[in-house]
TrEMBL record:
This is ATP-dependent DNA helicase. It comes from the Eukaryota. Its EC number is 5.6.2.3. It catalyses: ATP + H2O = ADP + phosphate + H(+).
Length: 578
């Protein structure tokens, strides 16, 4: 009842406290559940049943996998048994198409095996497996064996003729510096020299262009190149790119002793044994221990392939790193400048073995897609930005202030929020439904408080009622050594807490609002930290949205409530916000 009193306004009787959206519930617990304030496995059944009304079965299986991986389920077997039927509704027709047998019938056991096989395929793309999930049934091993090593198959499935054409076209365009890096990399791959190369260059100097040319070359020769990036958003820019953590199973809390969680003999280990090249974009952003973890793991795994692999950096595999040390370095919460430098790639023991190639020419200006005046403008901005990066463009003696050029500023006014919204989102009401309009706009602010103010202002401007989702907040039992956490940390207090990178207790959404995902939910579906979407169906237990940035633009995804915990907070307990 106390929890409800925080939400139900103007109640006149005990019964009215239990009335939620016109329905009077039998008890307070049910009323709390209806508001989404409680944690219960029943939520996942309700969520899948609700989404089944509007999504395809394949989307539903993706939703099921998201629940398995990101939401804390108490009894996996039970939610599988309850939802098996809706998850398998299209399996017979899928198999009929696959085997070209229009009268094919399946027994319940076969149906279960094929459905689990589909679920396992989604999990494998995320680098996970049903084997890792407690008490979940496993697909038929014969089916899995027939499918072979799907990680390797996926890397060999490319259209080689098309890639050869792409390669020849881009190769002809490479500038001198790009070409010399290209030759060094291809030589090292062909002669298995196992070199370590670092391609540095600021934004627009054609690193991605170079990667694409090299990837096309290697894949057109039926060889394997793994493309990874430190952040999900950069990974989406690479063909079949993945984040380094998901591709190599690097632990999240990485230290000097860490290794990647890859078992000898696993599908991933076999893939690494067959790999010719790894391209790691945005390398300066990663903690040096990530590289060292991969180094140690490859030295071990590649011993089957190369003699003395344990004496060679990365076991003797050619690895290309790219990025710009001017851009974001590893984030060390409350770390000093020295801490950050010490965690960077160039403080690692591996840095000694790198050969560095530098790209200098801003190719964005020469790609022929911009007019001369636009190119001059970009060039001036580019120089200005680089000077700031070099620390040579200060407006005062204390080296603290930078003068912004007038064309990037908006005029001061009495309503700064209104002005910036008007400047960034002109004619919002006519255009808020247009994905292209939304895709190219964003307001960045240094503080979350301002983000919330801006969001509230813009949400109020948009038409429609929308829906408010409440989180269920709990103190993680393992993080406190008392049974009185309810007294110490009452729910309304937990609800009021705000953390960076984690949504507040209440999230208000309207159909058509652009949202940004804050978690790497499913790379292969293009769902990672930073993916932008437009909210579409706002169900009670899940929300569907259309992707508008990165990979898979236009496809629809359904997202359940997932559990998030702040990484480091000042409180003496760990909050679980679902
Ligand atoms: N050799 C080239 N010939 C023609 N166009 C090129 C060449 N190299 C790069 N470009 C084009 O220049 C633009 C910027 O290149 P690219 O995105 O590869 O740069 P980048 O270094 O990866 O930039 P960022 O660090 O911002 O991601 C792209 O439009 C790309 O197609």
């Amino acid at each position: 009842m106390r929890m409800l009193l925080n939400f139900v306004k103007g109640c006149t009787s005990f019964e009215s406290i239990r009335r939620i959206n016109g329905v009077t519930h039998d008890n307070y617990k049910d009323a709390c559940y209806a508001l989404g304030l409680l944690e219960d496995d029943k939520e996942w059944n309700d969520c899948l049943a609700e989404a089944a009304l509007w999504v395809t079965r394949n989307e539903l299986r993706n939703l099921f996998v998201t629940i398995l991986i990101h939401s804390q389920v108490t009894d996996y077997r039970k939610i599988w048994n309850t939802n098996f039927e809706i998850l398998s509704e299209d399996i017979i027709s899928l198999q009929r198409k696959r085997f070209r047998l229009k009268d094919l019938q399946l027994t319940k056991k076969q149906l279960e095996a094929y459905t689990l096989f589909e679920i396992e395929s989604i999990l494998l793309k995320m680098g996970k497996s049903l084997k890792d999930i407690d008490r979940m049934p496993l697909p038929d091993s014969a089916l899995l064996n027939n499918a072979g090593n799907r990680l390797i198959n996926e890397e060999l499935e490319y259209d080689k003729d098309a890639l050869k054409i792409v390669h020849d076209q881009s190769f002809a365009l490479l500038n001198a510096r790009q070409k010399s890096a290209y030759e060094a990399i291809i030589n090292s791959v062909e002669k298995e020299e196992g070199r370590l190369l670092f391609i540095s260059g600021h934004g627009g100097t054609g690193k991605t262009f170079l990667w694409n040319t090299i990837i096309a070359k290697i894949r057109s020769q039926s060889r394997i190149v793994l493309t990874v990036a430190t952040s999900g958003i950069a990974a989406l820019l690479l063909p079949n790119g993945r984040t380094t953590h998901s591709r190599f199973h690097i632990p999240l809390d990485v230290s000097s002793e860490s290794t990647c969680e890859i078992k000898q003999g696993s599908q991933l280990a076999e893939l690494l044994l067959k790999t010719s090249l790894i391209i790691w974009d945005e390398a300066p952003m990663a903690n040096k221990f990530c590289f060292e973890a991969l180094d140690k793991t490859l030295r071990d795994i590649l011993r089957v392939r190369y003699e003395n692999s344990s004496d060679k950096s990365f076991g003797g595999l050619t690895i290309v790193f790219g990025g710009d040390f001017h851009q974001i370095l590893p984030v060390i919460p409350k770390g000093t400048r020295a801490d950050i430098v010490d965690t960077s790639l160039n403080s690692s023991y591996l840095w000694l073995f790198f050969t560095i190639y530098e790209l200098k020419q801003n190719m964005r200006l020469y790609s022929g897609r911009v007019s001369d005046s636009e190119a001059a403008k970009i060039s001036t901005f580019d120089k200005w930005l680089l000077q700031i990066g070099d620390g040579s463009f200060y407006d005062d003696i204390n080296k603290e202030l930078i003068k912004l050029p007038p064309d990037v500023c908006i005029k001061p006014s009495n309503d700064p929020i209104g002005s910036i919204v008007e400047a960034v989102y002109p004619s919002l009401l006519q255009k808020y439904n247009d994905p292209t309009y939304l895709k190219e706009r964003a307001i960045l602010t240094p503080k979350n408080k301002m983000v919330h103010e801006l969001n509230d202002t813009i949400m109020k401007m948009l038409p429609g009622e929308g829906r408010t989702y409440f989180s269920s907040d709990n103190v993680c039992k393992a993080s406190v050594n008392t049974n009185d956490e309810d007294l110490l940390y009452p729910t309304e207090f937990l609800n009021s807490l705000r953390f960076p990178g984690i949504p507040n207790h209440d999230v208000h959404l309207k159909v058509g609002t652009p949202v940004m995902l804050l978690r790497n939910l499913n790379q292969s579906e293009g769902l990672c930290n930073g993916t932008r979407l437009i909210a579409m169906d706002l169900g009670k237990w899940s929300a569907s949205a259309n992707i508008i940035s990165g990979k898979n633009i236009g496809s629809r995804v359904t997202i359940p409530r997932i559990i998030m915990s702040p990484n480091d907070s000042k409180w003496p307990f760990k909050l679980k916000r679902r």
